[in-house]
Amino acid sequence: MSETDTPARPRRPVVLLGAVASLVVVGTAAGRYPGALVVVGFLFAVTQGLTSLGSP
Amino acid sequence: MVGTLGKGSRRQRWTNASLHVLASTVAGAGVGAVLAALGGLLPRWISLPAAVALCLAYGAMEVGVVRLPLPETGRQVPADWRYRFPMPVTATLYGALLGPGIGTRVASPSYVTLLGVVTFVSRPVAGAVLLGAYACTRATAAAILAQSLRRTPMRAISWGYALAPLWRLAAILLTCLTTGVLVAASITRHAF
Q: How far is the alpha carbon of A1 from chain B, nearest alpha carbon, in Å?
């Protein structure tokens, strides 16, 4: 590699997959606690309720 | 629909908004309880993988990787209800129609993930709480928006669109977390 070469940037799908996998792992860790799904589901429900305002 | 909630005197607007939120919450909670009760009839070895599959599939749609069908009618609320019924009745009917989230248009693919969680892994009470929270938030936001439409119409109208990327990011994040929690549930055998 010469001095003028720039290092290859990480490709976007790889970064995306990494982020998704990390979040799934965090969710799996949180899922050890009973009620985790209700808490996550409640947040999900509230954000989805707000999302509907952005629809035509 | 939002315009309907913004009409009339202050007292009428609050009455219509309250009826709209109440009807929406009751309808959402009712549908949530029924879906969870029906899903409860399935054995766990079917329901848990089904919930995970919906998370993965509609999470991929939220990211833009695939395109899948949505449980929606694709229609707007019936406009003629505004002329056929008194305004409080119309506000109530609109709330009941919009509360379950599938009567008109589904704004986000991740809503199917929420429906999957409610149907496949929730007890009826949890299903009622989750879809009731969705319906209450949706109706309350619409009611608040309707009040602010009278003062700053353009700002209020563009509010939902301006924040759409934020809601999409939140939906992706919560879909991933939900998938993880469901994977953990398959290991720990938690019931919801």
A: 35
**Chain A residue with minimum CA distance to B142:** A53
Contacting residues for A8 by C-beta, under 8 A, at least 6 apart: none
Phi, psi dihedrals of residue A55, rounded to the nearest 5°: -90, 150
Domains identified in chain B, total number? 1
Q: Model pTM greater than 0.80? A: yes
Q: What is the pLDDT of residues B58-94, one digit of tens each?
A: 999 988 889 999 988 878 888 888 889 999 999 999 9
Helix then strand then coil, % of chain A, to nearest 5? 70, 0, 30
Which residues span the domain enclosing B160?
Answer: 2-188
Mutate to test the interface with B, among A17, A37, A46 (most CBs of B within 10 A): A37
Buried-exposed string B18-33: b where 16+ CB fall within 10 A, e elsewhere: bbbbbbbbbbbbbbbb
Q: Chain B residue with minimal CA distance to A39?
A: B130
Long-range CB pairs of B18-21 (<8 Å, 24+ gap) are B19/B88, B19/B91, B19/B92, B19/B95, B20/B91, B20/B92, B20/B94, B20/B95, B20/B139, B20/B142, B20/B143, B21/B95, B21/B136, B21/B139, B21/B140, B21/B143
ipTM of the complex: 0.85
